[in-house]
Specification:
Blueprint (H helix, E strand, L loop, with lengths): L4 H14 L7 H15 L2 H13 L4 H7 L9 H16 L4 H8 L4 H24 L5 H18 L1
Helix pairs in contact: 2-3, 2-5, 2-7, 3-8, 5-6, 5-7
Amino acid sequence: MHINPGLFWPWLLFASRLMPFGRLDGRTREKIILRTAWNCRSRYEWGQHVDLALRAGVRDDEIVRLARAPQEIADPCERALMTACDELCRGDTLGDATWATLAGHYDEKRMIEIMLLIGHYRMIAGFLNASGLVLEPPTEAALQAFHDRVAASAA
């Protein structure tokens, strides 16, 4: 994207207002981004944000759970966040029940941020998928280490 500075710099200003300078806490933000990356099948985005999620305090088992159906998530707020990712990625709209659950936990500014965060990372996932960008070697190694830890804990 940096090849086109006329798009890159304005995009970076916008993107930075969502991550890292948004109102959502880092754990919540990274879970939303990871679920969106999973829905979009964006390996690059997933790999980058597994590393960022771990640094934000998201545990390996929580990351694995993000790749499963939201109904398997016990916490109602987190389940609604992951359902919001699914609904927006699938149909560009949010169900009334999902909205109501989230509105019970977040103020209007954070609700807007959640919707824009999902939409933004959907767009970026499409760009990354279409451009064929591959993970940098250190990020690839960190992702492999994550997979190795998960496999070892399941054994």
